[in-house]
Design brief:
Shape: globular
Number of strands: 8
Largest sheet: 4 strands, parallel
Distance between the termini: 50 Å
Strand order of the largest sheet: 4-3-5-6
Strand content: 5-15%
């Protein structure tokens, strides 16, 4: 199992590259932008259809009004998606263009809409009126919408990058100049779509959108089978297991099928037929991801109520509420589930088992598939029952899924619980045997006890003003940023869907209030941040979205906004004690200057906000006082050199290593980096800068 995990982990850079692909990101972000349309329309669909189960039918006027709202929102879903996808794709293209020569995303959105209509709609004309055929303007046209958006973005970039535009004199106002600048790429886009539409219809006798459906229909059918469902949702969990947000990779490929199948189910149900499609958005939200990716709903209850380990119970209590609402990142990174070999099997196979159970109920027991979509944050059991229209079989299926998930997770949960109990027992014995070991206590305080909401809030807020603070020497740098410096700062937290980011943003706001800090926080989904990002001083990226950090950093640099990313919890074994690294930023206020300085030496405080030479001099001074022989052996120094002042000692080390710059001067910056790196890499030997204090009375 360990070898399998290691092999999968080696592929993480490749998975991250896929997640960062600008085409997949544009589809994902564009699709997320239209989710409100799907949910809004489903509410009217629920109100109109669900009462029919109990024999109640609305009067015709009310029924028509309800379905009108559904048809006028869901019915133009593809048009909206063409626009939103074009907008996000234009944003991605703009990262490769100079800031003074950017694609106008509004113009790009308009061109994509027109192009999509040319490719997907037939003109209907009668003696009385004329209009569009709406067959492919809804969910059936999503694939064509994506294609129209990409073609538009590529054409716009070609012309804008080469500055092939109508140029106006400098005296012309910028808004008017922009209008003329867009004429050429806009005209070329529409012309390309128009000519292609004429040629395609002449060759095949139908519109391009219909052709796309015919080409991809076999893939949609295969994806709806047992093997296809297992591959799709097994891959989603697998990606998540290695720390890459699985839905970001998988969902763009199936987004069109998810919505189209749900629409087909509803149409079949209204026609009195069997709604047989399994691969739907509701199935993904509430069956596959019941409690989040990996179907972790039952697992968090195990942690909370069945665990004997104190740590696991604490994690369960902290994560149970968000997991109930499908935000399971607190459990994934705190347990941890990510890259934890113990939970590999159930995490990957529980979602597969859930979707197979749903398919069995649909194929063999005659249950209708999902026809209605609710917000993904609706608790899984509730979303399952409502999304399936309160069918009696839905209650039976839900109970079976919960039982199966429990059976799959329980043996692995019990094994992990026993493992954690053993670790906790060993730690307790060590603490009883060496309760006066101040070193271990300080380490635990620094790396475990400070990792609460307050520490995260204060540390993250401090990052917000980092860009306004000049570099300072090592010791003063460790002093706390004052509350007055943090007042008025704004922090934006981003994740994939806005769930996890909302939790962290609330924690930051709460901690700031407790410290009397006027700190404003907000949360959003990555991909929707560009328009609001300039309004914030710091942007924090949640760990599941870490693959986007390079792009976010580039956006931040162009806007003058600081960016950082949280990391997942991990244990680091050091001889006879463990260190815990977990999401968050270390609080920059310490009880003693010694603790702060030592944390700077080991790299817990970023070197780029410190004077690296003064930091290295401080380290050499400390090591020289405790381990003079180690310094002499490592850097081939004699006793005379060892007695030099710290800066002169640093120069002596640089001279020994041949670190020279022009004029024969010593490159003390390079020498400082080398000294710090070798200390942190234990190349000076097994040393510590802290010593245990004697117990009181001895």
């Amino acid at each position: 199992m360990e070898q399998l995990i290691a092999t999968i982990e080696k592929g993480q850079p490749f998975f991250n590259a896929i997640a960062r692909n600008k085409y997949l990101k544009a589809i994902r972000d564009g699709f997320i932008s239209v989710i409100p349309i799907i949910i809004f329309s489903s509410i009217f669909c629920l109100v109109a259809s669900v009462p029919n189960i109990w024999g109640f039918y609305w009067p015709d006027d009310i029924n028509n009004a309800l379905w009108k709202c559904y048809n006028y929102s869901m019915g133009i879903l593809a048009i909206a998606c063409a626009a939103t996808t074009a907008k996000h794709f234009a944003d991605a293209q703009n990262r490769d263009l100079p800031k003074n020569n950017q694609i106008n995303f509004i113009s790009c959105m308009c061109a994509a809409i027109i192009g999509f209509l040319l490719l997907s709609s037939d003109t209907i004309a009668t003696d009385a009126a004329s209009g569009f055929n709406t067959t492919y303007l809804g969910s059936k046209g999503l694939l064509t919408a994506f294609i129209a958006a990409f073609v538009t973005g590529i054409i716009y970039k070609f012309f804008i990058k080469r500055n092939i535009t109508v140029k106006m004199p400098e005296q012309v106002p910028p808004n008017i100049s922009q209008t003329f600048k867009d004429i050429i790429p806009f005209s070329v886009c529409i012309t390309v779509f128009w000519v292609f539409d004429i040629v395609f219809r002449a060759a095949f006798g139908f519109c391009f959108a219909q052709g796309v459906i015919q080409v991809f229909q076999p893939l949609f059918t295969a994806a709806d089978g047992y093997i296809g469902l297992a591959v799709i949702y097994g891959a989603m969990s697998l990606f998540w297991f290695v720390g890459v947000h699985g839905p970001s990779i998988v969902e763009p490929a199936i987004a069109a099928a998810l919505v189209a199948n749900m629409t087909d189910n509803l149409a079949a149900f209204q026609a009195g037929q069997h709604a047989s499609a399994v691969l739907t958005q509701g199935a993904q939200y509430f069956v596959v991801c019941m409690g989040g990716t990996g179907a972790t709903l039952v697992l968090v209850f195990m942690f909370c109520f069945l665990a004997k380990s104190q740590e696991m119970r604490a994690v369960g209590k902290a994560a149970i509420v968000p997991v109930c609402f499908a935000v399971n990142e607190p459990l994934l990174f705190a347990a941890p589930i990510v890259l934890n070999p113990v939970f590999f099997v159930p995490f990957v196979f529980a979602p597969i088992a859930n979707i197979w159970i749903l398919k069995i109920f649909i194929d063999f027991l005659g249950m209708n598939g999902f026809m209605y979509t609710l917000p993904w944050t609706v608790p899984g059991p509730i979303g399952t029952i409502m999304g399936l229209g309160f069918q009696p079989l839905a209650f039976v299926m839900l109970a079976l899924i919960l039982v199966v998930d429990f059976v799959l997770y329980y043996p692995f949960f019990r094994a992990y619980d026993a493992q954690k109990c053993t670790e906790e027992a060993e730690i307790s014995q060590e603490e009883l045997a060496a309760k006066n070991a101040a070193k271990a206590a300080k380490l635990n305080d620094a790396f475990q006890g400070k990792a609460d909401a307050k520490s995260v809030a204060a540390g993250a807020a401090a990052e917000a003003v980092k860009s306004d603070t000049p570099a300072v020497p090592a010791a003063p740098a460790a002093e706390a940023t004052t509350a007055s410096d943090l007042n008025g700062k704004r922090v934006l937290v981003l994740c994939q869907g806005g769930g996890t980011s909302g939790l962290l943003a609330n924690a930051l706001a709460k901690a700031a209030r407790e410290h009397g800090i006027d700190l404003e926080t907000a949360a959003d989904a990555y991909g929707s941040h560009l328009d609001i990002m300039p309004d914030f001083d710091l942007v924090i990226l949640a760990p599941q979205a870490a693959s986007y950090f390079d792009d976010l950093k580039a956006d931040g640099e162009s806007m003058g906004v600081a960016c950082c990313v949280t990391r997942g919890k991990q244990w680091i074994s050091v001889d006879n004690f463990d260190l815990m690294d977990m999401p968050g930023v270390l609080w920059k206020k310490f009880d003693s200057l010694e603790t702060a300085t030592n944390l700077a030496f080991i790299g817990s405080i970023k070197d780029d906000i410190l004077d690296i030479e003064e930091l290295a001099c401080g380290l050499l001074s400390g090591v020289r006082a405790i381990y003079p022989q180690r310094l002499m052996e490592r850097y081939k120094l004699d006793e005379q050199a060892l007695a030099l002042p710290p800066y002169d000692l640093l120069q002596a080390i640089g001279a020994k290593r041949g670190m020279l710059i022009s004029g024969g001067e010593i490159d003390t910056e390079r020498a400082s980096i080398a000294v710090l790196d070798e200390f942190r890499g234990a190349k000076m030997g097994r040393i510590t800068l802290e010593a245990a204090t004697a117990p009181a009375g001895k």
